[in-house]
Write a structure and sequence with these properties.
about 50% helix; two-stranded antiparallel sheet; elongated; 8 helices; 4-stranded mixed β-sheet; alpha+beta
Length: about 180
């Protein structure tokens, strides 16, 4: 007879241990509530501050997170847009994007070393046209990349964000942005 069928697997033991721990925590929380501790004080026990990671921009415009230098993968236009916003900590209003078209083109030309085709130039036109949705699509891609790499509590520091109709920016403190 196969011994694996008789004994619990490692995963099953871990799950059982997690279930026991979960029940213990629930009991302790009930004890705290019954002793008069407020919900906000209890909630504060679960707030764990995750430190922000450095964002490194290499000489060839690679993006890397933290001392481990985990690469942040983005397609060239998305990365170029992200770099544009990194260079403008004060932020950019989407309606003013046509004013940044030339600067974005220069960045894109460096990020996309195989040259700027007519199609690439049209993509720049589209992303800087506030009447099109291209800018929002690129920002969504940026959010998706950082959300997949970082804890949700800090990922938004790396996004391009802002209120509708207002300046959009990356709120990551610029002392954490290292340009090589």
């Amino acid at each position: 007879m196969n011994r694996g069928n008789i004994d619990m697997t490692q995963k099953e033991r871990e799950h059982q241990n997690d279930s026991v721990l979960f029940e213990e925590i629930k009991e302790r929380l009930l004890q705290l509530r019954n002793s008069g501790i407020s919900e906000s004080e209890i909630a504060s026990l679960f707030i764990v501050e995750v430190p922000l990671k450095k964002l490194i921009v290499s000489r060839n415009y690679g993006l890397f997170l933290g001392d481990e230098r985990v690469e942040v993968h983005m397609e060239p236009l998305v990365k170029s847009l992200y770099l544009l916003f990194l260079k403008h900590p004060e932020g950019i209003n989407f309606k003013d994007l046509p004013d940044y078209r030339e600067e974005l083109t220069k960045i894109y030309d460096k990020v996309r070393p195989w040259g700027l085709t007519d199609r690439a130039m049209q993509s720049i036109e589209d992303v800087t046209n506030p009447l099109l949705n291209s800018i929002n699509e690129k920002c969504a891609r940026i959010r998706k990349v950082f959300a997949s790499m970082l804890d949700r509590s800090i990922a938004e520091q790396y996004y391009i964000k802002g209120e509708r109709g207002r300046v959009k920016k990356i709120s990551l403190p610029r002392e954490l942005v290292i340009w090589e």
